[in-house]
Amino acid sequence: MAAHQWLLFVAAGLLLNLTPGPDVFFIIAHAARRGARAGVVAALGISAGCCVHVAAAAVGVSALVAASATAFGVLKLVGALYLVVIGARMLRAALRGERTAPGASAAAAPDVDLSTVFRRGFLTNVLNPKVALFFLAFVPQFIAPGSAHASAMFLALGLLFTFNSTLVNSGWALATAWAARRAGALQRGMRWLDGVAGTLFIGFGVRLALSDMPAAA
Predict the structure, then answer these.
(1) CA torsion angle 46 88 92 189 (round to 10)
(2) Angle separating helix axes 114-126 and 22-34, nearest 10 degrees
(3) What CA–CA distance (Å, rounded) separates 203 from 25?
(4) CA angle, 40 as apex, 39 and 44 as ends, to 5°?
(5) Neighbouring residues of 23: CB distance < 8 A, sequence distance ≥ 6
(6) This model's pTM is above 0.70
(7) Mind listing the pLDDT tens digit for each residue in 45-102?
(8) DSSP three-state, residue 146
(9) Which of 46, 62, 89, 139 meets the CB 3.0–4.6 Å disulfide criterion with 132?
C-alpha cells in the first residue's frame, strides 16, 4: 500500500470509530458508573472481540458466515439476545437506583469485577455478526486485487483498525470519567444515563434480531 492509502485507511477508521454505536455506549456507561479504569477495560474487551473477527475473516471463517444464512441467523440471534440482556441489566440498575450519591466520586461506587467488564465487552462485540461483515466489507477495499499476501495484509489492516479503535474508545472512557468526576449535574444524571443506555442496548438487540442478511455483492 502507498503511504496515502495507509493514511486514508487510518482516517476512515478513526471517523468510523468516533461514530457512537453499541460498543461506545457500553464503554460510556461503565466509565460513568465505575470510572476510567472500568471504561478502559470495557474498551479492551471490545478490542479483543474485534481481534477475533479480524482473525476469523483473515482465514475465511467470516466469509463462510456471510455466505451461510443459517450461520448468520444463529449468530445474529445469540448476539441480539446478549444485547437485550445487557440492556435489561442497565435498566434494572437505573430503576433500583444502583448509583453513587450526587457529588460522590466514581471510585465510591460499589466494587466491580473488571474481568466481568472485560468479558461483557468481549461478548458484546464478538457475538455481533455485523462486525465480522463490516471487516469483510471495509478492509478489502484497501488491498490490491490479486495481492500475493492478501491474508497477511488483511490481518495487518484489521489489527491496525483495532488498535486505533482502542485508542478512540479509551478516549471515550477517559472523557466520560473526567466529566463524571467534575460535573455535578452529570453525577445526578447517571441513573438517567443507565436508563437511556439500557434502552438503546435493547433497541440495538431488537434491530439486530430483525435485520436481514446482507445481500451478496
Answers:
(1) 60
(2) 170
(3) 12
(4) 120
(5) 46, 121, 124, 125, 169
(6) no
(7) 999 999 998 988 887 766 655 666 776 677 677 767 876 887 787 778 777 765 443 3
(8) coil
(9) 62
